[in-house]
Amino acid sequence: MKGALELLQRVSAHPDARCWYVAWNPAGTLLASCGGDRAIRIWGKEGDSWECKCVLADGHQRTVRKVAWSPCGKYLASASFDATTCIWKKTNDDFESLTVLEGHENEVKCVAWAPSGNLLATCSRDKSVWIWEVDEEDEYECVSVVNSHMQDVKHVVWHPTQELLASASYDNKVCIYKEEDDDWECRATLEGHESTVWSLTFDPEGQRLASCSDDRTVKIWKESTPGDGSSDESWKCVCTLSGFHGRTVYDVAWCRLTGALATACGDDGVRVFREDPTADPEQPVFFMSAHVPKAHSQDINCVSWNPKEAGLLATCSDNGEFAIWKYNSDS
Amino acid sequence: MICEASFDVDARVLGDPRELRSSPGTKENFHHGNNHQAAHDQPHKLLRVHVCFCAELLSSGLRLDSLEVIHRSLPTTSHTAAAKAMASHFSGVLQLTDLDDFITPSQECVKPVKVEKKQGRSVAKIQIEDDGSYFQVYQDGQKEKLEKAKITLNDCLACSGCITSAESVLITQQSHEELYRVLRQNKQVSSSEQKVVVVSVSPQSRASLAAHYSLSSSEVARRLTSFLKNLGVHHVFDTSFSRSFSLLESQREFLERFRRKEVDKKALPMLASACPGWICYAEKTHGEFILPYISTTRSPQQMMGSLVKGYFASQKGVSPQNIYHVTVMPCYDKKLEASRPDFYLSDYETREVDCVITSGEVLKMLEEKNVSLRDVEEVTPLDTMFSNVCGEELLGHPGSGSGGYLHHIYKHAAKQLFGIGVDELTYKTMKNKDFQEVTLEKDGQILLQFAAVYGFRNIQNLVQKLKRGKSPYHFVEVMACPSGCLNGGGQLKPSSDQTNKELLQQVEELYRGERTSVPEQDSRVAELYQSWLESVGEEKARLLLHTQYHAIEKNTSGLGIKW
């Protein structure tokens, strides 16, 4: 069951700056990258190679930390250290800045669209998670501000099908949020990591959550509903992948098409994990299927599976590059 | 264990051994170009310490960027725990503007303590003893105890470069302990040296205590008066009385703003100003943009401050600094309001309100004395001077549990501007229950559009709308706490078998249990306007009834980093 990662292309996307994040559009045809040079670049395939289609350079005053495509693919949101989140609208070959969401006290670390397309979540070093709503006139309003974390909130991610949000923080915890009455609140806190939780990803069915951390592990969490029918929701850690990563694990991504789990690590390596299909679902077992030790010359900040083409993977690094890989499960 | 360490920017609370690791958080929080080794190449090594620690270091003439600290590995000190506990009490709006534990290199305390610059080496060693005292260790091994430097609450409010948000250090001046200290002192000194102790109780605090003890608001008023007077308090007043002034002045101010709205683009919407959480947030985050919209009318607490240290003082022939004025409030933010320089009487070197204690702190006082309000006998009559008394009852005002500003201004404006008498207001709930609208329409035209906006998320949206020029309102009652003052951070917590929601409902019912009065028809208020305010002249009266706001410079832009 050994797999392999083949390098398809390496692109110097943000010269002299970190490339912090890459995101595929829902159609899988475009890759957005963002970085320390305060710019966002949109890449598309021309023949066999990825070329820069568009540069969004004047949207932010500081590093752009993450970008996220709306479920319909028409909008792009960018989270920046300048404390704002910019919403861009795709127009033919270009993007125009639609609106700028303000309110966070300091650096915005992540932005994520809910699958419904009506809600947006942002999180920041100010320890808060904000949920925004967009109406028919493309007007954004704050719905809730939740302060469940004690420290910098690094990442937010929406459940693939339910209106449920998860956040990861420097306080080593993961919080799960749901809407109650007219407000969002933290319903569960997942403890277990021994250091900063950098990123989160749900499995394709939305039954499990994977988190990655500075403690060099990846944890898999499953929601358990107690048999007595009480509405007490609790998430348990059902699997910990340890001993695989040499340094901080900065990002983790669960492939919607194949169920493979990819990680981005501070030891410059990219890894792909597969699940053992014979294992007990309550105690899943993952094995490392592929590993490229020096995938980049510096820390890898992000890893992202293409949503349409199985096995196509993008990574990006502190050296300003992104790379496209092809993962084969059986080599 | 003694360890020497220079800490990374992202180091955590002193004493946590984890802070000695090279934190990867540093890479993200340290926008230092493409430098992979940023953590090691940084030109400044910074320390995350409590405000008072920093001030002590400054007072010894050191530059922070050349400091080595020897410290014993401390468990979470009571200081830190207290700081965390206190910090969580402030309204959500205020907390979010509070600075976190992150230090960016260019931020310095804008109010450094005056230091005696010493010549010599810039590197020094500081030792922290188990009891929390600081000693500078010289090269020859000699130790010198360092003085604790203090930074006042006001300085803290004015500063956006603060190192941590340890408000607890600064608010120890305002607690029920202080009231006890003053009462104790009164017993020990001669009558000529005694302070006149005045306590002004808010109706929201009364309602909260009423819910806790299953009494009515008026019963609480009578019994609390007895309890306090037993302790040595001389007068117990009710801030519903001073609130009448706030309501009347707000009404007048609104009419005045409405009439000049064509010439002054920032006259409307008028935004309520009684909530200090909202004011502090507005000053720090939106500054000059938002301040012109905010009503200059004083809050009931500060109106009472004017009344007690102004009128009352002169009537009784007592100097303002010989009066110790305490207010009982439903939140901690009111403590910050009392400390504002605008409410300091420099001529007398005294604050208009010396000490704010919360409903919760009153409960602590009762519990410490082993007294339950249920058992207190109602022996002393209610003070009538600055209270809305009717027989043995206290009167309140109609409208929201946060003062009723929307209610009073709406009715008054409808009558005065359009000749329309309104009996009952119809509230329309918007996005959520903390956002409500009231509209006055006639013949299809909107004459007045008012809103009540409570809680941070709604305030955010209101301000953003205002910035985009899309706000349709003439007046907005803005409150920092969801559900308003009855749900303030200083109110009593629910019992074990009660939810927050249930308790809040109970408190609301008890609050509304008081019969109401109309400020315009209050003869005593009218009399005070005549005998006191008119007699001092328009300018002085304005100072007594109104206040001003100050935008606070922000210095959080990363572009300000000096490398």
From TrEMBL, chain A:
Bilayer-crossing residues are: none
| UniProt keyword terms in alphabetical order | Repeat, WD repeat
One GO cellular component assignment for this chain's record is: cytosolic [4Fe-4S] assembly targeting complex
Q: Which PROSITE patterns match?
A: PROKAR_LIPOPROTEIN, WD_REPEATS_1, WD_REPEATS_2, WD_REPEATS_REGION
Q: Which segments carry the WD repeats?
A: 22-43, 57-89, 101-142, 146-178, 190-222, 293-331
What CDD domains does this protein map onto? WD40 (cd00200)
Supply the Gene3D superfamilies for this chain: YVTN repeat-like/Quinoprotein amine dehydrogenase
Q: Does the keyword Ion transport apply?
A: no
State the superkingdom.
Answer: Eukaryota
Q: Does the keyword Repeat apply?
A: yes
Matching InterPro entries, A to Z?
A: CIAO1/Cia1, WD40/YVTN_repeat-like_dom_sf, WD40_repeat_CS, WD40_repeat_dom_sf, WD40_rpt
Biological process (GO) annotations?
Answer: iron-sulfur cluster assembly
Q: Which family does it belong to?
A: Belongs to the WD repeat CIA1 family.
What HAMAP family does its record include? ciao1 (MF_03037)
| Task performed by this protein | Key component of the cytosolic iron-sulfur protein assembly (CIA) complex, a multiprotein complex that mediates the incorporation of iron-sulfur cluster into extramitochondrial Fe/S proteins. As a CIA complex component, interacts specifically with CIAO2A or CIAO2B and MMS19 to assist different branches of iron-sulfur protein assembly, depending of its interactors. The complex CIAO1:CIAO2B:MMS19 binds to and facilitates the assembly of most cytosolic-nuclear Fe/S proteins. CIAO1:CIAO2A specifically matures ACO1 and stabilizes IREB2.
Its subunit composition reads: Component of the CIA complex. Interacts with CIAO2A and forms a complex with CIAO2B and MMS19; the interactions with CIAO2A and CIAO2B are mutually exclusive. Interacts with CHD1L, ERCC2, IREB2 and POLD1. Component of the MMXD complex, which includes CIAO1, ERCC2, CIAO2B, MMS19 and SLC25A5. Interacts with WT1. Interacts with CIAO3. Interacts (via LYR motif) with HSC20.
Q: What is this protein called?
A: Probable cytosolic iron-sulfur protein assembly protein CIAO1
Q: What is the lineage of its organism?
A: Eukaryota, Metazoa, Chordata, Craniata, Vertebrata
